[in-house]
Design a protein that fits this description.
By secondary structure, the chain is of the alpha+beta class. It has 3 domains: 112 residues, Phosphorylase Kinase, domain 1 (2-Layer Sandwich), CATH 3.30.200; 160 residues, Transferase(Phosphotransferase), domain 1, CATH 1.10.510.10; 138 residues, Jelly Rolls (Sandwich), CATH 2.60.120.260. Helix content is 27%, strand content 23%. The longest helix is centred in the middle third of the chain and has 26 residues.
C-alpha cells in the first residue's frame, strides 16, 4: 500500500482537483455511502480515466484488504482493481481538511466503467422486462463466479451495475463496498444469500423504476424512489407496471416475502432467469401502421367512395372548404344526371358543354318525333298482347319461351350451393438450417489454446467424437478465467434463431453470442442456457428473437461435470 501524501492543485474547490499520491486527480464526485465517497478521476501518470473510492475513518484498512482480495479475480463483468493507497493514522492531508475526512484514509482505484449505471438508465423509465432479465442475469453470473472464489458484494444497489451501449454488464464494488461501510463478517452461505436478494432488488428496480427498500440517492444521477409497501413487503412489480412476466413477478414476491424464500445464491438466480438475450437497448421499432404514409386511391375509386359514403356536410367557416364542397356537389349532380339519362333513354338529358354552340332546333319537329315514338310503342304493345293468335294465323307454333312456366306444387326447391371450404392455413415452417463454414477454439483470457486440433470433431456429424476443453478442478474453470469457448464462422451474415448442442456431462452454462468478427471481445450475449443434461439428446438454445450475424461464439462460463473433473465436450453443433 502506497504511503505517499497528497497535494492540492490551484483548482482545488472542496475536494475537486485534489491529487492522491501525487497521481490520481479527483474530477467529479459521484456518490457517498457512509464514510465512502466515489469519484470519477484521472491517472496523470498513465493518462487514463479511472474511478476511485475514497474511505476515511476506521474502515480504511479493511477496505484496502478487501480491494486486494478482489484484485485476485479477473472477470470482464467485474470492475478491475488497478491500485490502492492511503495515509497513516494521525497524518492529516489537504483532502481531509477540504472534505471533512478524518485520518486514517484510503483509496481504491478501479477502471472507469464504460456505460451508465442503472440509476442513470432509470431516469428514462423502467427497462423492458427482457432487458432487465439480461442485465441482472449477467450480473448474477459474475457474482456466481466471484462466490465460487469466496468473494461477495453484499452491498448491491442500482449504482452497483453499469450497462454499456453494447450490452456489456459490469458490477462494481465487489468486496470493497461492504468493507467500506463496515459490514460485519458473515458466513459464506449468508453472504451468497445477501447477494441473491440484492440482485432481485436490482431486478425489481429495473422493472419498476423503484427501489424495494426505500428511496436511494446517488449524487450525480438523482434518486430512485422507494416502492410502496403492502403487509411489510414491497408491492409486486406486476401491480405497478404492465407486462411483467409471471416468473419475474413471482420471483420478487417470494424473495421479499416473510419466509426467507427465493434463490439462495447468485448462481441459482441466474439459472432461474436463463435464458436471456442481449442487455443492449432494443433497436428502434419498425414504423407502425399509423405512421406509414396514407395512400390515396385513384380518382375514379375516390369518387365512388365519396358517393357511397355520403359524408355529412362540413359546416366550418373556411371559405376554401366551402368552395371545394360546392364544387364537389355540382360535380356529383352532373354525374348523377348522366346516369339517369342513360337509364330512361332521354327523359332527363345530361348537360352537354357544346349544346349552347349548336343552333336552336324547331320545337315542332321535336313534338312530331315524340308522337311517332308513342305510336310505335302502342303498336308493339298490341302485337305482344296477341302474339299467340298472330303466330297461329301465320302457321307458326307457339314457342315454349312464349308460354309462362308454372312451377309444380310438388317440385322440390333447389338447395343453395354449399360454400366452398376455406383452405386451411399453412403450418409455420421450421427455421432453416444455417451452414457452418468453420470453427475455432477461443481462449482469449487464458493461454490462448483449448485443444484447437480437435475443433473439427464438433462439426463432423458423429456424436461419438467431440471437441473438448481442458479439464478443470471446478465448474468455474478452476477460477483461472471467466470462460472459454468455440467460434462458429457462418460464411456470411445469416439469420439465427436457435443453436442445437450435444454436450456430454451434467450441468454447465453456455452463452450464445453474436460476433461481427468471430472474437469474444467484440461479441454480445443473445441467449444463455444450461447444457449437459446427462442424456444423449441435444440441447436447443432458442434465441429470444432472431439475430443477423456472420459468426457466433459459444462461450462456456460454467463447465459440465464429467467422470474425471469439469470440461465441456461438444459432440455436435447445428445452427438454425
Amino acid at each position: 500500500m502506497s504511503d505517499g501524501g497528497t497535494r492540492t492543485t490551484s483548482r482545488a474547490a472542496g475536494a475537486v482537483g485534489v491529487l492522491l499520491d501525487g497521481r490520481y486527480r479527483l474530477d467529479e464526485r459521484l456518490g457517498r455511502d457512509g464514510p465512502s465517497t466515489t469519484w470519477n478521476g484521472h491517472d496523470e501518470q498513465l493518462d487514463r480515466a479511472v474511478q476511485l473510492r475514497v474511505v476515511s475513518g476506521a474502515t480504511a484498512e479493511a477496505t484496502v484488504d478487501a480491494a486486494r482480495r478482489a484484485a485476485g479475480l479477473e472477470d470482464l463483468r467485474l470492475a478491475r482493481v488497478l491500485d490502492v493507497g492511503g495515509t497513516s493514522p494521525g497524518r492529516a492531508t489537504a483532502l481531509d481538511a477540504a472534505d471533512g475526512a478524518a485520518p486514517p484514509m484510503a483509496w481504491v482505484v478501479t477502471e472507469r466503467p464504460a456505460g451508465r449505471t442503472l440509476v442513470e438508465l432509470l431516469r428514462e423509465g423502467p427497462l423492458p422486462a427482457a432487458r432487465a432479465r439480461a442485465v441482472v442475469g449477467e450480473a448474477a453470473r459474475a457474482l456466481q463466479r466471484a462466490g465460487a472464489a469466496g468473494l461477495h458484494h453484499r452491498r448491491l444497489d442500482p449504482s452497483s451495475v453499469v450497462v454499456g451501449d453494447d450490452g456489456s454488464v459490469l458490477v462494481v464494488g465487489l468486496e470493497v463496498a461492504a468493507a467500506a461501510v463496515g459490514l460485519p463478517e458473515t458466513t459464506p452461505a449468508r453472504a451468497l444469500r445477501e447477494d441473491a436478494v440484492g440482485l432481485v432488488s436490482v431486478l425489481y428496480a429495473a422493472l419498476t423504476g423503484l427501489w424495494p427498500h426505500g428511496s436511494f440517492s446517488f449524487v450525480r444521477s438523482g434518486t430512485v424512489d422507494g416502492a410502496p409497501a403492502q403487509d411489510g413487503a414491497p408491492v409486486p412489480p406486476g401491480d405497478l407496471v404492465p407486462d411483467v412476466p409471471n416468473d419475474l413477478d413471482t420471483l420478487a414476491v417470494v424473495t421479499f416475502g416473510p419466509y426467507d424464500d427465493g434463490p439462495l445464491t447468485p448462481g441459482e438466480l441466474a439459472d432461474q432467469l436463463a435464458p436471456w438475450g442481449s442487455a443492449a437497448p432494443a433497436p428502434p421499432a419498425a414504423p407502425s401502421a399509423r405512421s406509414r404514409p396514407r395512400f390515396v386511391p385513384p380518382v375514379g375509386a375516390r369518387w365512388r367512395d365519396e358517393r357511397a359514403t355520403a359524408p355529412a356536410p362540413d359546416h366550418r367557416t373556411d371559405h376554401r372548404t366551402d368552395h371545394r364542397s360546392e364544387h364537389r356537389s355540382e360535380h356529383r349532380s352532373e354525374h348523377r344526371t348522366g346516369d339517369l339519362a342513360a337509364l330512361v333513354g332521354g327523359a332527363a338529358t345530361a348537360a352537354d358543354p357544346e349544346e349552347d354552340l349548336e343552333p336552336a332546333r324547331p320545337a315542332v319537329g321535336r313534338w312530331v318525333l315524340a308522337g311517332a315514338a308513342v305510336a310505335l310503342l302502342c303498336a308493339l304493345g298490341l302485337a305482344a298482347a296477341n302474339l299467340p293468335e298472330v303466330g297461329g294465323l301465320l302457321g307458326v307454333a307457339p314457342s315454349a319461351r312464349s308460354t309462362p312456366a308454372v312451377p309444380s306444387a310438388t317440385a322440390p326447391s333447389q338447395a343453395p350451393a354449399a360454400p366452398e371450404p376455406e383452405p386451411a392455413p399453412e403450418p409455420a415452417q421450421p427455421a432453416q438450417p444455417v451452414a457452418v463454414a468453420g470453427a475455432a477454439a477461443l481462449d482469449p483470457l487464458g493461454d490462448g489454446e483449448e485443444n484447437d486440433e480437435d475443433v473439427p470433431l464438433a462439426l463432423d456429424g458423429d456424436p461419438a467424437t467431440a471437441w473438448t476443453t481442458d479439464t478443470y478442478e471446478s465448474a468455474t474453470l478452476g477460477n483461472l478465467k471467466p470462460g472459454t469457448g468455440l467460434a462458429l464462422d457462418l460464411g456470411q451474415e445469416a439469420t439465427v434463431s436457435a443453436v442445437e448442442l450435444l454436450v456430454t456431462g451434467t450441468g454447465g452454462t453456455v452463452e450464445v453470442r453474436s460476433s461481427p468478427d468471430g472474437t469474444y471481445e467484440s461479441s454480445s450475449v443473445v441467449a444463455t442456457a444450461s447444457v449437459g443434461s446427462g442424456s444423449a439428446e441435444p440441447v436447443v438454445v432458442q434465441l429470444p428473437s432472431p439475430v443477423r450475424t456472420p459468426s457466433l461464439v459459444l462461450w462456456f462460463t460454467a463447465l459440465p461435470q464429467v467422470a474425471d473433473g469439469f470440461r465441456a465436450e461438444v459432440a455436435s453443433v447445428a445452427v438454425r
